[in-house]
Amino acid sequence: MKILLVEDDERTAAFIIKGLRQAGYIVEHASDGETGLALAECEQYAAAVVDIMLPRRDGLSMVEQLRRHKVLTPVIFLSAKSAVDDRIKGLQSGGDDYLPKPFAFSELLARIQALMRRAAAIAEPTSLTVADLTMDLIRRKVWRAGQEIELQAKEFALLEYLMRNNGRVVSKIMIIEHVWDYSFDPQTNIVEARICRLRDKVDRGSERKLIHTLRGIGYKIE
Amino acid sequence: MKILLVEDDERTAAFIIKGLRQAGYIVEHASDGETGLALAECEQYAAAVVDIMLPRRDGLSMVEQLRRHKVLTPVIFLSAKSAVDDRIKGLQSGGDDYLPKPFAFSELLARIQALMRRAAAIAEPTSLTVADLTMDLIRRKVWRAGQEIELQAKEFALLEYLMRNNGRVVSKIMIIEHVWDYSFDPQTNIVEARICRLRDKVDRGSERKLIHTLRGIGYKIE
DNA sequence: TCCGTAGATTATTATTTGGTCATGTTTGCC
DNA sequence: GGCAAACATGACCAAATAATAATCTACGGA
Question: Is the pTM of this model over 0.90?
């Protein structure tokens, strides 16, 4: 289970990281809002602990941005300010909880766990994420960097299959079997053709390409 | 919207009741844990604010009992003790949030509202709304942009089903099962035909179309 | 009984999809 | 460097799917 920590104060960060690691979590740490945002959008975290006062981009704006991009990772804010207004702002900007500094680590842990429990109850295993590409299986919608992409049924099925195999290479035969439900080689270039269209919609105009070809082997998304 | 307050201190109770009423909520008040438990089990509340130190039965045990009985009303604990251990106990015994006394009323309100937002996803509504389309399930009326729309029974049932699945795609098979209660494919295009009429009434003359077709998949409202 | 309405069915038309093919491009191997 | 295989790309088109209109049926009330 991976938790993202966005905190600029090194001592606080070290303290939290140590505690969370001991509790069995994998912790990734960002020291400023921009880095935190980038990480949160690329990776899938079970929860995020976000300081409000941060260099480059404050925590509130970071979470607002995340929510705009349909990243629903549960967030708990930390802040030295315990002023009521700040707490309220935190809850309103899309955070799920708020903890004023100084806090006891055990309370932070309890709150994180409560959040994750709650999120697990709601979170449909129905959304897939790879880097800044998100797929909502129920609404049948796909976003790249927060921007909605229109996909046809077959394209959707193909992308879903690739995303379910996030990082793994899938051969054309496997694609044919899963997406087309053929048990034979159709002797045509359906897959290539469909991959091409998918690329056009998913990767075009994006610096970072997600769909990769492995000659003679297959395709993978990453 | 009804909120349950379980608090033995009269002054605190009066203060909270007044504030919540001003915010437009109906508040019911119990002064001890047993009464609170009884109320929470009989009535349906949008949220509960529960003091931990209570006569007859303490707040923690009250909520544990509630949860055992599958009452999932969101609970926010209040307590004079701000000791970390107590907070953790609160979260672990099935509470959704914890607020130490003294607190600012506006923070309590924000937290209650955040909790209710989260819980709203599960709750059973009496009216459904999607964009500027509203359906009153009790009076069986539908409005688009404030303008009433006359629907036939089947059309109403169909629209209700779509709206209950707001944003989610429903296949024609699912529609047939829910709206017509057939467990087989009627081999006709009833659904398409009814959708067409529904569109005529709901989306005609409106810039923003709400009923969407997903070829080969189904329909959704959004 | 007759009419009106709700709702189902059928027929027709319109639209979209997704597979195929032809061609262009890249890659890796000898 | 030349070559063949693998892959990318774009245009095309037939089949699948859906929208719409028209027609039919069943039922309840005047």
Answer: no
